[in-house]
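Example 4.3 (complexes with small molecules)
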Amino acid sequence: MKFFIDTANVDQIREAAELGVLDGVTTNPTLLSREKGAFRDILKEICSIVPGPVSAEVLSLEADGMVKEGKELCKIADNIIIKVPCIREGIKAIGRFNAEGIKTNATLCFSANQGLLVAKAGATYVSPFVGRIDDVGSPGLDLVSDLITIFDNYSYASEVIVSSIRSVQHVYEAALMGADVATIPLKVIEQLIKHPLTDVGIEKFLADWEKVEK
Ligand code: E4P
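Answer. The structure with erythose-4-phosphate bound is encoded below.
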């Protein structure tokens, strides 16, 4: 499973990158709005920290505008991926980006049919927002499972990025399903590392080591 970090905060990205298990980054307008500085400078810095894919989202709601914005974003760095919403115009834009060899991340995916359409259009990645689906009372991870099955049924090349992750349980279940990527907030990455029995075990080993003759 590939690990992306879901933030635009460069300190958090550096911290996660130091672990050596970070494969990419996803940003969105909300995440960028929390940071200081021009968004292009922030994205450029992120791309210099992480060599893997860095998603940057278009704001236009029309295919022409999306393509224009996406091409501008691509100038920031070679590892920029264009995030496009799963709407009618987004499907058109994804097809056009795909034809030009520009990689895309189909974002705000809330149904298997949306995922089917964007995969057919040639999206490089598809992002089901599991936490937001949980928030409205449906099991978000069911969509991940559906997308994995559908992409497998038709040998679509699109990779599933499990998004809007809120807990270690989301990561665990997505990994069991074989999801390609999880984009995870730093807080949850840190929770993945921790287990109380590991801490207790270390404490005991260190205490016992004091009794060993040296
Ligand atoms: C994914 O690419 C999105 O940036 C993100 O996962 C959204 O998550 P949220 O529901 O926590 O805003």
